[in-house]
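Dear colleagues,

As part of the handover before I leave the project, I'm documenting each prediction I ran so the next person doesn't have to rerun anything. This entry is a single chain, and its sequence is reproduced below.
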Amino acid sequence: MDDQSASAEVPRAPAVAVVIAAYNEEMSLERCLDSVLQCTPPDAGFEVIVVDDGSSDRTAEIGRAIAQHDPRVRILSQANRGKGAAQNAGVRASTAPRILVTDADSMVPQDWIFKMSRNLDEADLVQGGCYPSSMDSALLRIQHAYCAARFGIRNRWTTPSVGANNGFRRRAWEQVGGFSEATKSPTADFRDRVG
């Protein structure tokens, strides 16, 4: 064995996978991905899995164009089966022990992945606020305060359970059988089953 092969590092699996279910999000997907890709990574890095849930617009095309320029991004396509099915497909496509979920029409702050991942050191499920394009609004602060008071119990770090900002350990997802594919609110259902 020569010195080069002995010193070559084996690539590590990413510490975190960000899953984004997208259905007809051509107007917002690029902005969402830009915000996620600018996040400060945990030590072992992160990957982004966009699941195009049978869009009839340019969602998949936009995602593929971004993936060509950034190896952290993967695009999966499936027939339209709903948000829960798309999120399950994204989780299955990754081997990361920690999964973060955001919506394709949301933006996240630069420290989102780092903070959510760190909070998963202590909890199986972490929920945060909705991050729309205007991240510092009075309405958002009211939502945070309300949801922190309402859901900040039972060993959860949580603010709004809107589906736009959630994190969980893979083992918790496996234990409850993933997201429900038969409900209109897979996030709330998942939270209640994990909690």
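The CA atoms of residues 17 and 94 lie 7 Å apart. The radius of gyration is 17 Å.

All the best with the project,
I.
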